[in-house]
Amino acid sequence: MCGIIGYIGKSEAAPILLEGLRRLEYRGYDSAGLAILNGTLSVRKCKGRIANLTDLIGREPIHGDVGISHTRWATHGGVTDENAHPHFDESGKLALVHNGVIENYQTLKEQLLSEGHHFKSQTDTEVLAHLIGKHFEALGGEASGPRLVEAVRAALKEVTGTYGIAVMHEAVPETLVGARRGSPLVLGIGKGENFLASDVSAIVGHAREAVYLRDYDVVTLGRDDFEITTLDGGVSGFKVSKVEFSEDDVNKGAFPHFMLKEIFEQPESLQNAIRGRLSVEESTAKLGGLNMTPQQLRDIERIVLTGCGTACHAAMVGEYVIETLAHVPTEVEFASEFRYRNMPMNKDTVVFAISQSGETADTLAALRESQRKGHRTLGICNNVASTIARESDGGVYMHAGPEIGVAATKSFTSQVAVLTLLGLLLGRIRHLSTSDGIRIMEEMKAIPEKVREILKQNDRIKEIAHKYAYAKAMMFLGRQFNYPVAMEGALKMKEISYLHAEGHPSAELKHGVIALISPEVPSVFIAPDDSVYDKNISNIEEVKARKGPVIAIGTEGSSKLEKVADDVIYIPRCPDYLSPLLTVIPLQLFAYHLAVKLGCDVDKPRNLAKSVTVE
Ligand code: M6R
């Protein structure tokens, strides 16, 4: 959702800003723009892709070594050139880009209108630009960096809502100002140049070090220095971190899409999720980041797992796995529901907020609500610098590396792997024996290689996907551990191919879903050789009897499927509780190839944002 990049240095700003915007494309956007200072402020902005902005700048070049830029995902005001950022104040000398929502913008706008301000857009952001400009004028005196920072602080104190902003002023050419509350913002530190970005991926290759700003931080950037203070002007404690990613991590490499690259990264990302977390001596998992003693872990009476979209599907798998391995009652709730629901929870309930980005607004709100009620709330995040990672009482990092494709792939398997480690840990301090622990650990260690085996079938899965590209809709069906995988398979299909897809427990077919079955509506059955294999076979027969085509995901050597399904994709044998880590891989590839065949932009699906930072 919305992306910011700002630059102050000695190089031409426009190419750096455009490259950064391209790297932020995955966040989702509908328009883009930039403003550059070279004596006076010049702006170029337009709706549509970054390519449109690049063309515009090609036709109307813009030069200078200080600038701010933005990708907008519309919230207030339609998708128009006028509503694209940057926005200006009344004087036209101050430019601002903003992520987040200014909730009291109507009230502020009315006040500003009554004072003679004129607005060009329908956005809440333009109101903030005017407000900062108004304070800048009111402060008077010499135009300087401190005066601009003071104006930013004064305006932000009047604002309710969320923001990550970058601000520049024609009269203060040596300074950029940034601030955040609720929307991520990173300061990138270079040599003779500094950056602001909503995501570190935008500045990889330019900045070697970064400061992940905290809520209420205000940062002033010069070419050679920076200062971070609080909204009240106090000292902000901050930490300079190394930018750990390389340009390879944030580029597609030889792959046509990030999504395909990330699907193929899963042997490594799964390895990274379990690396160093399996103790041979104790035959259990080690999750030190939970910050809990063995006794505290033993005292857990109930677990609530919360997240959105794919993270919620991973949580659903986690519910089955934790209950199977540890016998701890576990429940899953969408974060968007959890935050407003008054769930009765006893004091020994532990809540896990699961989020790849660590910035999803609903998941963050669920975490805060749970903490408000006094529950230990832990995070399972990929982004180590994220708000959820910072605010949780402990947790487990996924170590999956940057996930840029909007469709979550490797983050799902990493989340499931982490939840399985949790199940093993909790099981071992309850009822599982040493030999149970060793067996589970050995099976987990074998998973990355088994994923590699499945990936070798990519060409065949592509053929099958193309065969079914005629479909009008698709059903995804599975039972037990693979019911959530059916949900995840359907989500992957609909979000990148725009094909209507539904995920259900196979047995629910007869309770309504079967009415949708027809030759134009294929069903994908996730039917590994597990405790419900024969039940799934019966459900497949029911679909076939109604002329519904069937694609099945089965276990190598389980021959019954060949007789009932039209096409079968095989996974290597593994225990039931680990099967989601394997069965989901063909579904990711299936959705990917079908979407590409339909000509869809898989890395940037319509209407979607990678990280949903507004409610
Ligand atoms: O960053 P998060 O894991 O919190 O994101 C949650 C969902 O927005 C995300 O999984 C979304 O459903 C994906 N686009 C699914 O592929």
Polypeptide structure, described:
- The chain starts with a strand and ends in an 18-residue tail after the last helix.
- It is of the alpha/beta class.
- The strands form five sheets. An eight-stranded antiparallel β-sheet has the order 3-2-4-1-10-9-11-14, covered by helices on one side.
- It has three domains: 3-250, Glutamine Phosphoribosylpyrophosphate, subunit 1, domain 1 (4-Layer Sandwich), CATH 3.60.20.10; 252-455, Rossmann fold; 457-615, Glucose-6-phosphate isomerase like protein, domain 1 (Rossmann fold, 3-Layer(aba) Sandwich), CATH 3.40.50.
- The protein contains 19 helices and 26 strands.
- 36% of the residues lie in helices and 21% in strands.
- The chain binds 5-amino-5-deoxy-1-O-phosphono-D-mannitol (M6R).
Helical content, roughly? Answer: 25-40%
**Which CATH-level-2 architecture of the largest domain?**
4-Layer Sandwich
- Classified by CATH, the class of the largest domain is Alpha Beta
Biggest sheet overview: 8 strands, antiparallel
Shape: globular
Task: Provide the structure class.
Answer: alpha/beta
Bound compounds, each kind once, are: 5-amino-5-deoxy-1-O-phosphono-D-mannitol
State Rg. Answer: 26 Å
The named CATH superfamily of the largest domain: Aminohydrolase, N-terminal nucleophile (Ntn) domain
Strand content: 15-25%
Q: Any low-confidence stretches, pLDDT <50, length ≥5? A: none
Gap between N and C termini, in Å? 11 Å
Tell me the number of structural domains: 3
CATH topology value of the largest domain: Glutamine Phosphoribosylpyrophosphate, subunit 1, domain 1
Mean pLDDT level: 95
Q: If strands are numbered along the chain, what order do they take across the biggest sheet?
A: 3-2-4-1-10-9-11-14
Number of helices: 19
Kindly state the number of beta strands. 26
